[in-house]
Amino acid sequence: MTPEPGTVRLGDLAAGGVRRRRRPDAGVCSALARSVGVVSLTGLEADFEVRPWLDGCEVKGRFRCEVTQICGVSLEPFSQPLEGDIDLRLLPQGSPNLPAAEEGELEVSLETPDPPETLDGDLIDLDAILAEHLALAVDPFPRRPDAVFSWSQEAGDVSPFAALRNLTKPTQT
Q1: pLDDT digits (tens, 9 = 90+) for 50-89
Q2: Which residues contact 44 (CB under 8 A, 6 or more apart)?
Q3: DSSP string of 66-105?
Q4: Widest CA span of the chain, in angstroms?
Q5: Of the candidates 125, 48, 58, which has an alpha carbon nearest to the alpha carbon of residue 97?
Q6: b/e for 107-125, b at 16 or more Cβ within 10 A?
Q7: How would DSSP label each residue in 28-42?
Q8: 145: region left, alpha or beta (phi > 0 left; psi from -120 to 50 alpha)
């Protein structure tokens, strides 16, 4: 059985690494745009290199696309390029190389690579990896480069009690 174009079998890496280029069609890009919370996503392209690593694999690559988002300041749509790197290690379930689950504190360092993730089965889903990295690269608070936020405080009493005083003023009848 031949794997889907966006997948690689772990067993196929025994002969060496493989390279894949993914260019999702407009329908997939539209679904991805909805899932990551952008207006649109065009020109998505990703290059992957999948190599054997320990008893699993190492996935490295790069993606690029154009995203249209709504500016958080002006509420107008704007487009900008989006690029990102992919660097991930996967190990099969039951691997002796998986980090032991310890109770207590987890020590995280920005200088060390992320620990390997557990691979479900023997298929490496490059499209799912691309979607995950794309979602992490999208700015959750987008701002157009030329957007300016201007605000001025109104003159007068600005205490929280001023609002209450306005509510309790007697009305003229």
Answers
A1: 999 998 999 999 999 999 999 988 889 999 999 999 999 9
A2: 22, 23, 24, 29, 32, 63, 64, 65, 130, 134
A3: EEEEE-TTT--EEEEEEEEEEEEEEEETT-TTSPP--SS-
A4: 90
A5: 58
A6: eeeeeeeeebeebeeebbb
A7: HHHHHHHHHT-SEEE
A8: alpha
Strand ranges across the sheet with 40-53? 18-22, 40-53, 56-70, 77-92, 117-119
pTM of the model: 0.77
Q: Which candidate, 86, 85, 81, places its Cα nearest to that of 38? A: 81
State the Cα–Cα distance between residues 78 and 71, nearest whole angstrom.
7
- Torsional sign, CA 83, 60, 47, 94: negative
